[in-house]
Amino acid sequence: MSENTSDNKKSVVKTRNFIHEIVEKDLLEGKNGGRVHTRFPPEPNGYLHIGHAKAICLDFGTAQKFGGKCNLRFDDTNPSKEDQEYVDSIMEDVRWLGFDWEDRLYYASDFFDKLHEFAVKLIKEGKAYVDDQPADIISQQRGTPTKPGVESPYRKRPVDENLALFERMKNGDFPNGHCVLRAKIDMASPNMHLRDPLMYRIMHAEHHRTGNKWCIYPMYDFAHGQCDYFEGITHSLCTLEFEIHRPLYSWFVDNLADSDYRPRQIEFSRLNLTYTMMSKRKLLQLVEEGLVSGWDDPRMPTISGMRRRGFTPASIRNFVEKVGITKTEGMVDVAMLEHALREDLNKNAQRVMGVINPLKVIITNFPEDKVDMVDAVNNPEDESAGTRKVPFTREIYIERDDFMEDPPKKFFRLSPGTEVRMRYAYFITCNNVVKDDEGNVIELHCTYDPASRGGNSPDGRKVKSTLHWVSATENVEAEVRLYDRLFMVEDPANQKDSDFRQLLNPESLLVLNKCFIEPSVKNAKPLDQFQFERLGYFNVDKDNSDEKMVFNRTVSLRDNWAKQMGK
Ligand code: ATP
Ligand code: MG
Fold first, then answer.
1. Measured on CA atoms in the order 539, 542, 545, 551, is the torsion positive or negative?
2. Are 476 and 390 in contact (CB under 8 A)?
3. Is 44 in the pocket of ligand 1 (CB under 6 A)?
4. Which of 279, 271, 345 is nearest to 487 (CA)?
5. pTM of the predicted model, to two decimals?
6. Same fold, 18-108+221-341 and 354-468
7. 41 Cα: distance to centroid of ligand 2 (angstroms)
8. Which residues, in sequence order, are bridge partners of residue 207?
9. Is 270 designated active site?
10. Could you confirm whether 157 is annotated as catalytic?
11. Nearest 5°: phi and psi at 529?
12. What would the pLDDT profile of 404-443 be if each residue is shown by its tens digit?
C-alpha cells in the first residue's frame, strides 16, 4: 500500500531569488560574522495556509541554502485570540512540510520580561509615556498620511510619573483600556507608524503560556523586531505590508542595541491564489459558522486541509519554488498548484480501479462462481511498483457514464452491439439493455471473449475503448467525496460590497455513496493515496472506519495548467 508517497527529505533550494542575492552579498561583505539566521514567525491565532507555506519554504529554504539556521517563533502577543491548539497545529504543519527548527523553538512571550525592561528603559530616557486618553481619541489624533497628528496632552508627563503609572498598569491597578504606554517619536512624521505608536496595552486575559503573570501585553509592533534582535536573526523575511513598519522596528532596535548587529528586514510579496481566500479572520469565520467542517476541511486552503485532501509536501514545496519570490503583488492560478500536485502523484500514486457511479453488467457467458484473478499494473510510471491481482467475475460494475443506449457518432465507449475492453481483463460486447418501469437503464447483459484474457486482442481485431470496472461481488464499498472550488469567483478576497459567504460554491462538496473499489484497497489507512484509473487521484479520509471506507478525490486527472502551458 502506498504510504505518504512523496519524497519528504529536506530539499536543497535550487533556484535563486533576489533575497538570496542580498544574503550572498551580505556574506561576501562579511556581515554578521558569516552567519545566516532566519525565522518563521506565525501568530498562533489560526491554522497555517498555503500562503504561509511560501514564507516557510523561503525562511527555512534560505537558511538551508547558506548553511544557516531557521527558528520557529510564535509571535504570541495577543492572548485574546491565541490558543494552544493553533500552536500545536502550526508545529505539525511545518514539520509535515519537511522543515525542522531543531532546538530553536521560541515564543515572543519568552521575551516578555526583557521587553518590559526595555519599556522601562525607554521611559527613563524620556522616550515613552503613559497616555490616559481613550483609544478612539488617540486614533483620531494620529492624523492622516497628509495631515500631521496632534500631540497628546500627556506627552510631556514627567519620567517619574510615567514610571509609577506603568508600574501600576503592570500591577493590575487599572481596568482594560484605562491607559496605554506609547513611544515618544514624532507626531508629524510622514510615516504614520512613527506617530507615537502604542507599546503596551492593559489586557486582563490569561495567556496560553504565561498564565496570569501579566495583565499588560506588548503590541505586535513592539515585540516583533526586538524578538528578531534577541534571537540573533540576521535576515528577517516578511511580506510587503511590513515595509512601512520597518522604520519603527529600526527605531526600537536602535534604542536597544549595544553593538552594530541588526536584523535586516527584507520584504517580499504574499502569495495570492485564484478562487482562494487567505485571510485568517475569514477562514476562522468559515470554521466558526460551520460553513466548512473544520480547519482541516479538504476544501480549505489550510495546510491541514490540503494534507487531508491528499496534497503532498513535495508538491507544495515544488509549487512554491515555481512561483518564485518577488516584490510584485499578483495572483497565481490555482491550476498551477494542482499541476504540481499531479506531477508528484503521477510519479508516486498506486493505480487501482474504482467505480463511483455504478451500472451493473452481467457477463452472461461467464461461469457463475468463477473468480478470475487478472494481473494489473500498479504504476506505469514506476516499474518497481510491480503488479497486483484483481478479481474479475460474472457480475461487474462499470461507470454509468461509460454506457449510452443511443450514442452520438463520437461516443466510442459501451453501447448496444459494440465491443470494448475491460482493462486488464477481457473484451466484452453489449447484447441487451435491462430497464426498470420508468425506462431507466438498470443492468446490461454482455458476453465476453475468453480468448481476450489480459485485455489482449485474440485475432488483431481492434476495440475503440478501454473501460475500468470493479467486480460486483468482490469489492469494497465506499463513500467518495468529490470537491470543487470553495469559492465561485476568481478573486473572492477583493469583491467590494459583497459578503464573502455569498461567494461560496454551493456545489463544492458532493458525497457519493455506494461506490465500489477493487479489494486491494481494503486495508488502506487515512492519507494513503491512489489513482482511481480514469477518475483522478484519491486518498483515504480520516473519517474512514472498519465499517465504511471513505475516500476524498484529491484532484481530477485533467490538467488545465499543463494544457495552457502547451505541455
Ligand atoms: P494575521 O492577519 O493574523 O497577521 P498573517 O497571515 O499575517 O495573519 P502570521 O501568522 O502573522 O499570519 O504570518 C506568519 C508569517 O507568514 C508572516 O511572516 C507573514 O508575512 C507570512 N505570510 C502570511 N500570509 C502569507 C502569504 N499569503 N504569502 C506569503 N507569506 C505569508
Ligand atoms: Mg501577521
1. negative
2. no
3. no
4. 279
5. 0.94
6. no
7. 8
8. 211
9. yes
10. no
11. -115, 145
12. 999 999 999 999 999 999 999 999 999 999 999 999 999 9
